[in-house]
Design a protein that fits this description.
This protein has 8 helices and 7 strands. With about 230 residues, the chain is an alpha/beta fold. A 7-stranded parallel beta sheet has the order 3-2-4-1-5-6-7, sandwiched between helices. Strand 6, helix 6 and strand 7 form a beta-alpha-beta unit. Helix 1 crosses helix 2 and helix 1 crosses helix 8. The longest helix has 20 residues. It comes from Nonomuraea africana. This is Chromosome partitioning protein. It holds the Pfam family GTP_EFTU.
């Protein structure tokens, strides 16, 4: 069953593009067919995809750029993919564009950078998804890879989200330089070879599995856009 997953936070720099592209890659590695859609006027995903396509292995998932509201309202009409991941703007000024994406989404992933002052925008994004009746979960990103600091911040964030009654994934991704290094070197993360890449890919597979589990527990809703 084709599913659309929006990657949304009303704050930039929290890892939306990294999450979106790499989930598309991991979906293909896991045997699915994926489309990544760049709905952000800043075109960060488009720039990253262009670099990755130049590499030896190319970009295994398909990619497109869609910025018009009408096209975004019709994402549900794209049927020939198992998963569609949509990268979205990171500002309130583009809320209409975000709402157009949400109206077509089966699930919203809300990346949350623990060190980036993203708590309030993350909660606002979650409330917007709630108001629109779209299932969502917060994904903690850019977690400090050092053993002492990272886990402490994760636990503190979970306590806040529990108090707010907001669902979150128990898995998370760490702030490894391999995410940016592989793009700069025209290599997808699953083919990048450095000390942290293997761990990063393992984390991405865990995130993908958590997303798939959440999707499997959701009712099938025919999104018609609006």
């Amino acid at each position: 069953m084709p599913r659309t997953i929006a990657v949304v936070n009303q704050k930039g720099g929290v890892g939306k593009t990294t999450t979106c592209i790499n989930l598309g890659i991991v979906t293909v590695v896991a045997g699915g067919k994926a489309l990544v859609i760049d709905a952000d006027p800043q075109k960060s995903a488009t720039d990253a995809a262009a670099l990755l396509k130049k590499g030896k292995h190319g970009l295994p998932c398909d990619f497109t750029t869609e910025s018009g509201h009408e096209a975004l309202r019709n994402l549900h009409r794209i049927r020939n993919y198992d998963r569609k991941y949509v990268d979205t703007p990171g500002s309130l000024e583009n809320e209409g564009r975000v709402q157009a994406v949400l109206s077509n989404s089966d699930l919203v992933i809300i990346p949350f950078d623990l060190d980036g002052g993203a708590l309030k925008p993350t909660i606002r994004t979650a409330r917007l998804a709630q108001e629109m009746g779209v299932p969502f979960a917060i994904l903690m990103t850019k977690v400090d890879p050092h053993a002492t600091r990272g886990p402490k911040l994760v636990l503190e964030a979970r306590e806040v989200f529990d108090e707010q009654g907001l669902p979150y994934f128990k898995v998370f991704t760490r702030n490894y330089t391999c995410y940016s290094d592989c793009v700069k070197n025209n290599t997808i993360i699953t083919e990048w070879r450095d000390g942290s890449a293997r761990t990063a890919v393992e984390e991405l597979h865990r995130v993908h599995a958590a997303v798939e589990l959440k999707l499997s527990r959701l009712p099938i809703v025919e999104r018609v856009g609006r």
